[in-house]
Specification:
- This protein has 26 helices and three strands.
- By secondary structure, the chain is mostly helical.
- It has four domains: 46 residues, no CATH class; 116 residues; 144 residues, no CATH class; 121 residues.
- The protein has a three-stranded mixed β-sheet, with no helix packed on it.
- A hairpin with a 6-residue loop joins strand 1 and strand 2.
- Helix 1 packs antiparallel against helix 2, helix 8 packs antiparallel against helix 9 and helix 15 packs parallel to helix 18.
């Protein structure tokens, strides 16, 4: 007996409404009405399933492309799914994973939607900055107009790396039809290769209907020292900051803005101050942050950045002014001003004369080259220990240079002798396992022994430190073995 769609729908309707409100159309044959409905539903389900015709089997997936590289010791192809799964949750691992996994990773990604990031990186550029192999103008246009959002972002970033003007033209072609949140992400891709040719487009973006888009456009324009916006900001900033020579020693005087007008807002100044911040200091910080740093030597008596930072700032404006200069140095990637604001790493004031905390110091360090950055952090750790070094270590190149690695190990040794527990430095220990040069393992051997417990030290601390150093030592030796095997493969 065939089962029609209407029969099934009648059963479903009766079950939803209840047999008291809608008596079932099936004969009860002495059964309670609900039981009769359920029995009929079971029979009809069985008939429906039995009546299904077998579908044609899907074709088998194409074989994986050949991988000419020899298998690595203890890394067979069977481990690739676990590797891709790890990269799915850790975006920082993806470039290395895809480079390591090779063509089989792309084959696997085609079989699992959760690994599509691998396909986007290969076809759209991703963080590796590669365009598709068939990336002619028509293909790029097709990907831009029909791709998923993440694929479009990757495509724009890859094209920006190879042809900044073409990437900008592609973005302009659909700019007015994009959603505000998408415009913001696309605009952020212009940070790579930012140049004077981007200024006309960014100036138009200052009139965007989205406040976040306007703010990002203003930030990018202020990173172009010769842009019209940066010159407007400089004119406003210099009207607020001046050199006073009337006293025995010159000093800096500040007269913060008394209002935030419409032109300031158009140039990216946010009028409403955060809770707890004064409006005038809030506006001043934004003006100084966006003004070219080259403005200040001329405005402040021809002094160098070091001399300017050392000048007294009267009436309590020093913190606000120096913090704004810090942000400007990072935005404009100005190493000379960063050095001045960082100050000497061994100075008694650990924060230096202009930095406002570990996070700001870490950002300033990114403007220095890798060697100078590592040397500054090594000297800072030697002078001040590890209590504020975690964020600074995070911006240093890996593996750490020999002086930096030695400074970290010496500081850990000093902390052990001081009687503290190792978990107070667990963050630094974790970084050391990943970032120390494996050659440092030989220097760790004496520290793996359990020292005699001295007076005025935390109970059992010596044993805990011994375990921590043993774990660090074994991790470094494992990394050394892996590097040796990878080099021989």
């Amino acid at each position: 007996m065939a089962v029609t769609a209407s029969d099934w729908e009648d059963l479903v309707t009766t079950a939803l409404l209840g047999t008291e409100r809608r008596p079932p159309a099936v004969p009860a044959d002495g059964r309670d009405a609900p039981v009769a409905v359920l029995d009929e539903a079971a029979q009809q389900t069985l008939r429906r399933r039995a009546g299904l015709r077998p579908a044609q089997a899907a074709p088998l997936p194409r074989p994986a492309p050949p991988d000419p590289r020899p298998p690595l010791p203890a890394a067979p192809p069977e481990a690739l799914p676990a590797l891709l799964e790890a990269a799915r949750g850790r975006t920082d691992l993806r470039p290395a994973v895809l480079s390591f996994a090779g063509p089989r990773a792309l084959w696997l990604a085609g079989l699992n939607p959760e690994w599509r990031f691998a396909l986007r990186a290969a076809s759209g550029g991703g963080r590796e900055g590669r365009l598709p192999a068939d990336a002619g103008p028509e293909r790029v246009r097709e990907l831009w107009e029909e791709g998923l959002f993440a694929e479009r972002v990757a495509l724009l970033s890859a094209l920006r790396d190879q042809d900044p003007a073409a990437a900008r033209a592609l973005l302009e072609s659909t700019w007015t039809t994009e959603r505000a949140e998408d415009r913001l992400m696309f605009l952020d891709s212009l940070r790579a290769g930012l140049c004077a040719q981007d200024e006309p487009f960014l100036e138009r973006a200052l009139a965007d209907r989205s406040r976040n888009v306007r703010a990002t456009a203003a930030e990018l324009l202020s990173a172009l020292p010769g842009s019209a916006l940066s010159l407007r900001m400089a004119a406003r900033a210099v009207s607020c900051v001046a050199l006073d020579r009337t006293g025995a020693d010159p000093c800096i005087v500040v007269e913060a803005p008394h209002a935030c007008d419409a032109e300031m807002e158009r140039d990216g100044v946010v009028a409403k101050a955060p809770s707890g911040r004064g409006e005038r200091s809030w506006w001043l910080g934004q003006l100084v942050e966006a003004a070219p740093l080259a403005t200040w030597p001329e405005r402040l008596g021809g002094h160098t950045p070091e001399e300017i930072v050392a000048l007294e700032v009267v009436d309590g404006w020093e913190g606000e002014l120096h913090a704004a200069w810090c942000r400007a140095a990072v935005r404009q990637a100005d190493a000379a001003w960063a050095r001045a604001l960082l100050g000497s790493p061994s100075a008694p004031e650990a924060a230096g004369p202009g930095a406002v905390g570990p996070a700001q110091r870490a950002k300033l360090l990114t403007t220095l080259d890798e060697e100078e950055r590592a040397a500054w952090v090594a000297e800072f750790i030697s002078a001040h220990g590890l209590s504020e070094a975690f964020q600074l270590l995070g911006v240093c190149a890996v593996p750490w240079s020999a002086p930096l690695g030695q400074a970290v190990v010496d500081a850990l040794d000093i902390a052990r002798d001081a009687g503290s527990y190792p978990w107070s430095f667990s963050g630094v220990m974790g970084l050391a396992e990943r970032c120390l040069d494996p050659a440092e393992a030989n220097r760790l051997a004496p520290l793996t022994a359990t020292p005699a417990e001295a007076e005025n030290t935390a109970p059992g601390a010596g044993g805990y430190w011994s375990e921590a150093f043993q774990r660090l030592d074994s991790t470094l030796r494992l990394r050394a073995t892996m590097a040796e095997e990878l080099g021989a493969a």
